[in-house]
Specification:
The protein contains five helices and seven strands. InterPro entries: Nucleoside_deoxyribTrfase.
């Protein structure tokens, strides 16, 4: 059966550490190979720049213009997506990704949760809302390559298992 690229993916991930940034690079390479994907969007690839901000990379409070534009751009891309893929760092929980997952599920769109940990020997725990919000779970430490062949046109359910739900 020929696969037709119709899926539009919103790729969500924290982007603060070197490990998180490297995961995004790997995921984007794999998603680009997937025959069911028409396009994918990663918010940091099209970041809004407020020309009136001085030294935003230094940290501190971002301008209201930047915050409103960034928030609206991300929500628009979530609305336009047919599925979300979230590279979720189980060691450094990211509120932004959690919000995006909830928003996507409120729109009745599937979420593929790709989990990562630097401590695979620890007991695995996941918040109930995150566990129930995920349509499919993929272990990013061991199964990241699945992103290249996953059927994003159908998004088969693979509920969260093996986690203590808290």
């Amino acid at each position: 059966m020929t696969q037709i690229p119709t899926a539009k993916i919103y790729l969500g991930s924290p982007f603060y550490t070197d490990a998180q940034r490297e995961r995004v690079v790997q995921a984007k390479e794999l998603l680009a190979k997937n025959p069911t994907i028409a396009r994918f969007h990663f918010p940091f690839d099209q970041s809004f720049v407020d020309p009136d901000e001085e030294n935003p990379e230094v940290g501190g409070i971002r301008s209201m213009t930047w915050r409103v534009a960034t928030y609206q751009n991300d929500l628009t891309e979530i609305v336009n997506a047919t599925c979300g893929v979230f590279l979720y760092d189980m060691d450094k929980i990211d509120d932004g990704s959690a919000f995006e997952i909830g928003f996507m599920r409120a729109l009745h769109k599937p979420v593929v949760l790709v989990t990562f940990t630097e401590h695979p020997d620890r007991e695995k725990e996941m918040n109930l809302m995150l566990a129930q919000g995920a349509t499919t779970i993929i272990d990013g430490n061991e199964e990241l390559d699945k992103l290249a062949s996953f059927d994003f046109n159908a998004v088969p359910a693979n509920p969260v298992r093996g986690y203590k739900i808290i």
